[in-house]
Amino acid sequence: MMTRLLLPTCLLAAAGLTLLARPPTPLAAKEAAIEIHRDVVFGRGGETELKLDLARPRAAKGPLPAVLILHGGGWVAGNKRDFLPIVKLLAEEGFVAVTAQYRLARPTISGMGRRNPNPWPAQIEDAKCAVRYLRANAKRWNIDSQRIAAMGFSAGGHLAMLLGTMNGADGLEGEGGHATHASSVQAVISFFGPTNMGRARPQDTKDIAKLPPEEKRDVLRAMALSAIFGQRFMEDPTRASPLSYVNEGDAAMLLFQGTKDRLVDPEHTVSMMDALTQAGVPGKVVFHVGKGHGRGWKSDPLATDSMQDVLDFLNQRLRPGRVRSLAARLK
Known about the structure:
This protein is of the alpha/beta class. The protein is built from 11 helices and 8 strands. It has an 8-stranded mixed beta sheet, with helices on both faces.
Protein backbone atom coordinates (compact mmCIF):
# COMPACT_ATOMS: atom_id res chain seq x y z
CA MET A 1 0.00 0.00 0.00
CA MET A 2 1.32 3.45 -0.87
CA THR A 3 2.02 5.47 2.25
CA ARG A 4 2.18 9.21 2.73
CA LEU A 5 3.71 11.43 5.36
CA LEU A 6 1.64 13.56 7.68
CA LEU A 7 3.29 16.83 6.67
CA PRO A 8 2.67 19.91 8.85
CA THR A 9 1.61 21.95 5.84
CA CYS A 10 -1.07 19.40 5.06
CA LEU A 11 -2.25 19.31 8.63
CA LEU A 12 -2.60 23.08 8.67
CA ALA A 13 -4.99 22.73 5.74
CA ALA A 14 -7.30 20.81 8.07
CA ALA A 15 -7.68 23.87 10.34
CA GLY A 16 -11.20 24.90 11.10
CA LEU A 17 -12.66 21.71 9.65
CA THR A 18 -16.31 21.25 10.49
CA LEU A 19 -17.77 17.90 9.59
CA LEU A 20 -21.01 16.07 9.28
CA ALA A 21 -23.74 18.63 8.87
CA ARG A 22 -26.74 17.62 10.87
CA PRO A 23 -29.36 15.39 9.37
CA PRO A 24 -32.68 17.11 8.72
CA THR A 25 -33.51 19.65 11.44
CA PRO A 26 -35.39 18.10 14.38
CA LEU A 27 -38.75 19.41 15.43
CA ALA A 28 -38.64 22.58 17.53
CA ALA A 29 -40.19 20.66 20.41
CA LYS A 30 -37.27 18.25 20.39
CA GLU A 31 -34.72 21.08 20.49
CA ALA A 32 -36.63 22.71 23.34
CA ALA A 33 -36.24 19.48 25.30
CA ILE A 34 -32.50 20.02 25.73
CA GLU A 35 -30.47 22.51 27.74
CA ILE A 36 -27.09 23.90 26.69
CA HIS A 37 -24.30 25.12 28.95
CA ARG A 38 -21.48 27.04 27.26
CA ASP A 39 -17.92 27.71 28.36
CA VAL A 40 -17.98 25.57 31.48
CA VAL A 41 -14.50 25.54 33.02
CA PHE A 42 -13.27 21.95 33.36
CA GLY A 43 -9.62 22.39 34.29
CA ARG A 44 -6.38 24.19 33.60
CA GLY A 45 -3.71 23.55 31.02
CA GLY A 46 -0.66 25.38 32.30
CA GLU A 47 -1.87 28.98 32.49
CA THR A 48 -4.88 28.31 30.25
CA GLU A 49 -8.39 27.96 31.66
CA LEU A 50 -9.96 25.06 29.76
CA LYS A 51 -13.63 25.21 28.80
CA LEU A 52 -16.30 22.96 27.35
CA ASP A 53 -19.82 23.25 25.96
CA LEU A 54 -22.37 20.72 27.21
CA ALA A 55 -25.89 19.77 26.14
CA ARG A 56 -28.22 17.34 27.85
CA PRO A 57 -31.90 16.33 27.88
CA ARG A 58 -33.90 18.46 30.29
CA ALA A 59 -36.10 15.77 31.76
CA ALA A 60 -34.40 12.44 31.00
CA LYS A 61 -34.06 9.92 33.78
CA GLY A 62 -30.46 9.18 34.54
CA PRO A 63 -27.71 8.69 34.91
CA LEU A 64 -27.07 9.06 31.19
CA PRO A 65 -24.18 8.01 28.95
CA ALA A 66 -21.87 10.85 27.89
CA VAL A 67 -20.04 11.60 24.64
CA LEU A 68 -16.97 13.85 24.56
CA ILE A 69 -16.24 15.41 21.15
CA LEU A 70 -12.75 16.61 20.20
CA HIS A 71 -12.32 18.88 17.18
CA GLY A 72 -9.83 18.56 14.36
CA GLY A 73 -7.46 21.12 12.88
CA GLY A 74 -4.05 19.50 12.81
CA TRP A 75 -3.55 20.09 16.58
CA VAL A 76 -2.88 23.76 15.73
CA ALA A 77 -6.36 25.07 14.90
CA GLY A 78 -10.07 24.32 15.27
CA ASN A 79 -12.65 25.25 17.87
CA LYS A 80 -14.99 23.36 20.15
CA ARG A 81 -17.88 25.50 18.87
CA ASP A 82 -17.56 23.88 15.44
CA PHE A 83 -19.33 20.80 16.76
CA LEU A 84 -22.18 22.35 18.71
CA PRO A 85 -24.73 21.07 16.12
CA ILE A 86 -23.62 17.47 16.75
CA VAL A 87 -23.67 18.07 20.50
CA LYS A 88 -27.28 19.23 20.21
CA LEU A 89 -28.19 16.23 18.08
CA LEU A 90 -26.69 13.77 20.57
CA ALA A 91 -28.49 15.48 23.46
CA GLU A 92 -31.76 15.18 21.56
CA GLU A 93 -31.01 11.46 21.29
CA GLY A 94 -30.64 11.11 25.07
CA PHE A 95 -26.91 11.58 25.67
CA VAL A 96 -25.02 14.11 27.70
CA ALA A 97 -22.89 15.55 24.89
CA VAL A 98 -19.79 17.66 25.36
CA THR A 99 -17.38 19.47 23.06
CA ALA A 100 -14.17 20.48 24.80
CA GLN A 101 -11.22 22.66 23.93
CA TYR A 102 -7.62 21.56 24.24
CA ARG A 103 -4.46 23.62 24.04
CA LEU A 104 -3.36 24.16 20.47
CA ALA A 105 0.23 23.75 19.40
CA ARG A 106 2.02 26.52 17.55
CA PRO A 107 4.76 25.23 15.26
CA THR A 108 8.20 26.53 16.17
CA ILE A 109 9.72 28.72 13.45
CA SER A 110 13.48 28.90 13.80
CA GLY A 111 15.08 32.25 13.18
CA MET A 112 11.84 34.12 13.83
CA GLY A 113 11.86 33.88 17.60
CA ARG A 114 8.58 31.98 17.72
CA ARG A 115 8.34 29.14 20.20
CA ASN A 116 5.60 26.60 20.69
CA PRO A 117 3.71 27.54 23.88
CA ASN A 118 1.82 24.22 23.99
CA PRO A 119 4.12 21.38 22.94
CA TRP A 120 3.15 17.73 23.20
CA PRO A 121 1.71 16.24 25.40
CA ALA A 122 -0.47 19.27 26.25
CA GLN A 123 -3.19 18.13 23.83
CA ILE A 124 -3.76 14.66 25.31
CA GLU A 125 -3.34 15.99 28.86
CA ASP A 126 -6.28 18.34 28.26
CA ALA A 127 -8.41 15.63 26.65
CA LYS A 128 -7.78 13.36 29.63
CA CYS A 129 -8.64 16.20 32.00
CA ALA A 130 -12.00 16.63 30.24
CA VAL A 131 -12.87 12.96 30.84
CA ARG A 132 -11.83 13.20 34.48
CA TYR A 133 -13.99 16.31 34.88
CA LEU A 134 -17.04 14.45 33.57
CA ARG A 135 -16.49 11.71 36.13
CA ALA A 136 -15.81 14.16 38.95
CA ASN A 137 -19.04 16.01 38.10
CA ALA A 138 -21.17 13.04 37.09
CA LYS A 139 -23.87 13.82 39.64
CA ARG A 140 -24.08 17.48 38.62
CA TRP A 141 -24.59 16.65 34.95
CA ASN A 142 -26.57 13.41 35.40
CA ILE A 143 -23.79 11.28 33.83
CA ASP A 144 -23.11 7.58 34.23
CA SER A 145 -19.36 7.65 34.88
CA GLN A 146 -18.98 4.10 33.55
CA ARG A 147 -20.49 4.96 30.17
CA ILE A 148 -18.37 7.64 28.53
CA ALA A 149 -17.39 7.72 24.86
CA ALA A 150 -14.87 9.89 23.02
CA MET A 151 -15.48 11.05 19.46
CA GLY A 152 -13.00 12.98 17.34
CA PHE A 153 -12.23 14.21 13.88
CA SER A 154 -8.74 14.05 12.34
CA ALA A 155 -6.46 15.38 15.12
CA GLY A 156 -9.39 14.95 17.50
CA GLY A 157 -9.78 11.36 16.33
CA HIS A 158 -6.14 10.76 17.25
CA LEU A 159 -6.80 12.08 20.77
CA ALA A 160 -10.03 10.07 21.07
CA MET A 161 -8.21 6.86 20.18
CA LEU A 162 -5.55 7.61 22.79
CA LEU A 163 -8.31 8.00 25.38
CA GLY A 164 -9.64 4.58 24.37
CA THR A 165 -6.29 2.78 24.51
CA MET A 166 -4.40 4.47 27.37
CA ASN A 167 -4.92 4.13 31.11
CA GLY A 168 -3.52 5.92 34.13
CA ALA A 169 -0.42 3.72 34.20
CA ASP A 170 0.51 4.92 30.70
CA GLY A 171 1.00 8.46 32.00
CA LEU A 172 0.50 11.77 30.18
CA GLU A 173 -2.27 12.64 32.64
CA GLY A 174 -1.12 16.22 33.19
CA GLU A 175 -2.02 18.43 36.13
CA GLY A 176 -5.27 19.95 34.89
CA GLY A 177 -7.37 18.75 37.79
CA HIS A 178 -9.59 15.91 39.11
CA ALA A 179 -6.58 13.64 39.55
CA THR A 180 -8.46 11.01 41.58
CA HIS A 181 -10.68 10.09 38.63
CA ALA A 182 -9.90 7.84 35.66
CA SER A 183 -9.34 9.28 32.18
CA SER A 184 -10.19 6.16 30.16
CA VAL A 185 -13.36 5.85 28.08
CA GLN A 186 -15.64 2.95 27.17
CA ALA A 187 -16.11 3.62 23.46
CA VAL A 188 -14.33 5.57 20.72
CA ILE A 189 -15.44 7.04 17.41
CA SER A 190 -12.73 8.37 15.11
CA PHE A 191 -13.14 10.05 11.76
CA PHE A 192 -9.85 9.67 9.83
CA GLY A 193 -7.61 10.07 12.86
CA PRO A 194 -3.89 9.19 12.58
CA THR A 195 -2.78 6.15 14.56
CA ASN A 196 0.99 5.92 13.93
CA MET A 197 2.98 9.06 14.77
CA GLY A 198 6.32 7.58 13.72
CA ARG A 199 9.54 6.69 15.52
CA ALA A 200 12.60 8.50 16.80
CA ARG A 201 15.37 9.27 14.30
CA PRO A 202 18.85 7.76 14.64
CA GLN A 203 21.45 9.80 16.48
CA ASP A 204 23.22 10.35 13.18
CA THR A 205 20.68 11.61 10.65
CA LYS A 206 22.88 10.28 7.85
CA ASP A 207 21.76 6.81 8.92
CA ILE A 208 18.14 7.53 7.94
CA ALA A 209 18.88 6.74 4.30
CA LYS A 210 20.13 3.28 5.33
CA LEU A 211 16.89 2.30 7.09
CA PRO A 212 14.39 -0.16 5.60
CA PRO A 213 11.58 1.65 3.74
CA GLU A 214 8.97 1.25 6.51
CA GLU A 215 11.31 2.46 9.24
CA LYS A 216 12.47 5.35 7.09
CA ARG A 217 8.86 6.38 6.52
CA ASP A 218 8.13 6.35 10.25
CA VAL A 219 11.22 8.43 11.06
CA LEU A 220 10.35 11.02 8.42
CA ARG A 221 6.76 11.14 9.64
CA ALA A 222 7.90 11.84 13.19
CA MET A 223 10.34 14.49 12.01
CA ALA A 224 7.54 16.24 10.13
CA LEU A 225 5.23 16.14 13.14
CA SER A 226 7.95 17.34 15.49
CA ALA A 227 7.62 20.78 13.87
CA ILE A 228 4.15 20.89 15.44
CA PHE A 229 4.65 18.98 18.67
CA GLY A 230 8.19 19.94 19.68
CA GLN A 231 11.29 18.27 21.04
CA ARG A 232 9.67 16.14 23.75
CA PHE A 233 7.53 14.48 21.11
CA MET A 234 10.61 13.64 19.04
CA GLU A 235 12.28 11.92 21.98
CA ASP A 236 9.75 9.08 21.62
CA PRO A 237 7.00 9.60 19.01
CA THR A 238 5.56 6.16 19.75
CA ARG A 239 4.17 7.55 23.02
CA ALA A 240 1.85 9.70 20.92
CA SER A 241 0.67 6.78 18.76
CA PRO A 242 -2.65 5.11 19.61
CA LEU A 243 -1.21 1.94 18.05
CA SER A 244 1.38 1.75 20.84
CA TYR A 245 -1.23 1.21 23.54
CA VAL A 246 -3.68 -1.29 22.02
CA ASN A 247 -4.41 -4.12 24.45
CA GLU A 248 -7.15 -6.55 25.28
CA GLY A 249 -9.91 -4.76 27.15
CA ASP A 250 -9.52 -1.42 25.37
CA ALA A 251 -12.54 0.61 24.37
CA ALA A 252 -14.54 -0.60 21.39
CA MET A 253 -13.93 1.56 18.33
CA LEU A 254 -15.87 2.81 15.34
CA LEU A 255 -13.42 4.08 12.70
CA PHE A 256 -14.33 6.06 9.58
CA GLN A 257 -11.90 6.48 6.71
CA GLY A 258 -11.95 7.77 3.13
CA THR A 259 -10.00 5.70 0.62
CA LYS A 260 -8.65 8.84 -1.09
CA ASP A 261 -7.53 10.64 2.05
CA ARG A 262 -4.33 12.52 1.19
CA LEU A 263 -3.76 13.91 4.70
CA VAL A 264 -4.15 10.78 6.78
CA ASP A 265 -3.36 7.79 4.63
CA PRO A 266 -5.87 4.91 4.91
CA GLU A 267 -2.97 2.74 6.15
CA HIS A 268 -3.42 4.40 9.55
CA THR A 269 -6.91 2.94 9.86
CA VAL A 270 -5.85 -0.42 8.40
CA SER A 271 -3.05 -0.66 10.98
CA MET A 272 -5.42 0.14 13.83
CA MET A 273 -7.94 -2.37 12.51
CA ASP A 274 -5.24 -5.07 12.50
CA ALA A 275 -4.06 -4.17 16.01
CA LEU A 276 -7.60 -4.21 17.42
CA THR A 277 -8.23 -7.57 15.75
CA GLN A 278 -5.10 -9.11 17.25
CA ALA A 279 -5.98 -7.78 20.71
CA GLY A 280 -9.59 -8.96 20.52
CA VAL A 281 -11.02 -5.44 20.87
CA PRO A 282 -14.51 -5.16 19.33
CA GLY A 283 -15.37 -2.50 16.81
CA LYS A 284 -16.31 -1.56 13.30
CA VAL A 285 -14.45 0.09 10.42
CA VAL A 286 -16.28 2.04 7.71
CA PHE A 287 -14.37 2.82 4.52
CA HIS A 288 -15.98 5.31 2.17
CA VAL A 289 -14.71 4.69 -1.34
CA GLY A 290 -13.37 7.77 -3.09
CA LYS A 291 -13.74 10.12 -0.13
CA GLY A 292 -10.92 12.35 1.05
CA HIS A 293 -10.12 14.09 4.31
CA GLY A 294 -13.19 15.91 5.57
CA ARG A 295 -14.25 17.62 2.38
CA GLY A 296 -17.38 15.97 1.04
CA TRP A 297 -18.30 14.33 4.35
CA LYS A 298 -20.79 17.08 5.22
CA SER A 299 -23.23 16.43 2.42
CA ASP A 300 -26.05 13.92 2.32
CA PRO A 301 -26.38 11.00 2.11
CA LEU A 302 -22.93 10.52 3.64
CA ALA A 303 -23.58 12.77 6.64
CA THR A 304 -26.85 11.05 7.49
CA ASP A 305 -25.39 7.58 6.99
CA SER A 306 -22.36 8.38 9.13
CA MET A 307 -24.38 9.85 11.98
CA GLN A 308 -26.72 6.87 11.90
CA ASP A 309 -23.68 4.61 12.23
CA VAL A 310 -22.52 6.76 15.15
CA LEU A 311 -25.87 6.53 16.94
CA ASP A 312 -26.14 2.78 16.36
CA PHE A 313 -22.62 2.26 17.71
CA LEU A 314 -23.21 4.44 20.78
CA ASN A 315 -26.40 2.57 21.56
CA GLN A 316 -24.71 -0.81 21.15
CA ARG A 317 -21.79 0.11 23.41
CA LEU A 318 -23.45 2.42 25.95
CA ARG A 319 -27.19 1.58 25.82
CA PRO A 320 -27.48 -2.04 24.65
CA GLY A 321 -30.98 -2.29 26.07
CA ARG A 322 -32.19 0.07 23.34
CA VAL A 323 -30.80 -2.02 20.47
CA ARG A 324 -33.53 -3.90 18.70
CA SER A 325 -32.51 -7.46 18.01
CA LEU A 326 -33.47 -8.99 14.67
CA ALA A 327 -31.78 -12.31 15.38
CA ALA A 328 -35.03 -14.13 16.15
CA ARG A 329 -36.58 -12.90 12.89
CA LEU A 330 -33.60 -14.16 10.89
CA LYS A 331 -33.89 -17.76 12.09
